[in-house]
Specification:
This protein has a domain of about 80 residues. Helices cover about 20% and strands about 25% of the residues. It has a 19-stranded mixed sheet that branches. It has a four-stranded antiparallel sheet with strand order 26-25-24-27. The N and C termini lie far apart (about 60 Å).
Length: about 700
Amino acid sequence: MNRTIHRPGDRRSMSVRFGLLVIVASTGLLLATLARASSQPFEGSGQQASEDSAAIPSDRIGRLSIIEGEVSFLAAGAENWGAAEPNRPVTAGDRLWADADGRCEIDIGSTAFRIASGTELDIVRLDDDWIQVGLPQGSISGRVDLLDADQDEEIDTPNAAIAIVDRGRYRVDVSPDGATTGITVWSGRAEVTAAGSTFTVEANQVSVIRGDDAPTYDLTDAGSPDDFDRWSLARDERGGRAGIARRYVSENTPGVSDLDGYGSWDQDPTYGPIWHPTVVDAGWAPYRTGHWEWVAPWGWTWVDSAPWGFAPYHYGRWAYVRNRWGWCPGRVVQQPVYAPALVVFVGGAGWNATLSFGREGGVAWFPLAPEEVYRPAYATNLGYRRRINVTNVTNITTITNVTNVTNITYRNRGIPDAVTAVPQRAFSNGQPVARAAVRVSPEQLRSARVVGATAPVAPTPSSVAPLRATRLPPVRLSGRPVVATHAPPPAPVPFAAQQKALDANRGRPLRHTQLEAVTPSAPVDQPVVPPIRSAAAPGQGDRTLRPARPGLPPAMSGVGIGAARRSAPPPSSPESAPAPAPAARVPSPPSRPMPPAVESRPSPPARSPAPRQPRNAALDESYQNERAQLEARHRQEFARPPAGETPSALERRQETEHRDLQQRHQQAQSGGAPGLAPGTKPSARETPQPKPTPIPKPTPKPKA
């Protein structure tokens, strides 16, 4: 069937065309190794249960949403920098470098970071509670739309740790020598910690921190935005025009802002809201215009080439409705769970290698449809599997009972041209699927057997970074430390240390116990991880942060408690906020302009507010109080490590405690419990700390 859907003529100049899919005729059958793999238990079966809960990934992920000029990317655990690619997932341990002519954006749903030229940004931590990044040099702009009381965002520089306290717009600049940090708060509020002391930067203020061992700080009024600020503002305005998509997709979904510009919405009586891309090629099917990469800890991950190609490939399901493909986002939840690719891989006995695939054979897959359960190949537990499926599978019993996906009849498998197949070498090397695709006949499909949620193909270094970088960051940045309020998570296990075990694991990511087994054999030349020191510790000779001149508000000793501060309403008037010291007046930044009106287009019927899991106030208070105590103790231990505990042991223990609290909270939410179950007690070596004051309950805002 040949068809092409065209964008309206007045927007044709913005359309993105994908090359016409080259289909190579094949008369043989697919890879024998797929047959051997399909005879084994499904890789996500019940054998892989809660005993590996330490390896369960975060629900949240980032996405490289736009790249301009030369931008390089170093994946967590990789040895070589690769060229950054749009729609590549971003997670903890990844590093980005924007060269002299480059800039890019990381979309984390309700948070976005824009990276200016000459900037390195390191993703220190990215999970359900924390976004923590390191900035050894350069400039970033941040937009935060949502920030719950149990979430923290922090930007770490060589001489200051900057905690985002309220939603708003921020900018951080670090000089090339790392000795000076500037923080501009266009809107919102931030806490800056350096050399054991903390001060607050309010909206329309800029602060400059100079020095390391004996740092000083200044506060003045913010100036006018420059070209980088205006570019960031334009990106904000574009996201603000995604009004229709946000009716049907959580704003915590990376890529939601691209949907309205590249597609249209419809209402289907069976599937509900459904989104159709407006420009595709004849014979197009989902998961065909892009390539596969290996991204730990999820494993084989789809990276699409379309500018809209993130949300529809990592959330929701695809359905073939009225002779065209449409994406079904399903129910709206507050925090959707990222999946590497919502597909089913096929092969089976009798599928032999042919000349079309080469000696190593081939790999084939098709998209999951609504109500079909996704059973991950990586480590999960029942609560995670429910969260990742609940948007598109209404019967929770189905999610619980599906432990073997090889005996299910899948709807999309029988759709003409729905199955995509490529040679195994093209798959593992991250080559574009559209150029390497091989046509699979109906007869071949009938003889195929379901393999599971991952391809039984071992990754190679090319799977991690398909394209080598041409521009690298200065060598000095790899050893430049930044300061933080918390210890970083353990460094990722180098891919080279995992490769032998991955070769034997049939395309499945390594479980936590397997990673621990290969960690001691990590090669000497493992990737350099930039060091991180405590911002809560005084400088050399117990010197602390000092004001640069008289009249500045004094810094307070210790680390601020951002979560508690977020619980209180912001100052109601300028008089109630600390005033900056007298300074030469510079023009204030203009107010954020209203987004221009979007063109009129048909929209599906309005629906009732998105169904969300009701909040459990008692559980929320229990979790926030325990989390506040845990984070306070972790900050103290990072500043003054317990005797006899190495830095790496401290990182591992704190990460275990952090994950334990997250999982107990998720389990309590799923079970409707009024409070948290008891957690693992701290080890005897830990330094006790008085319990902090419980987080105050939010004060109701006065009615307008």
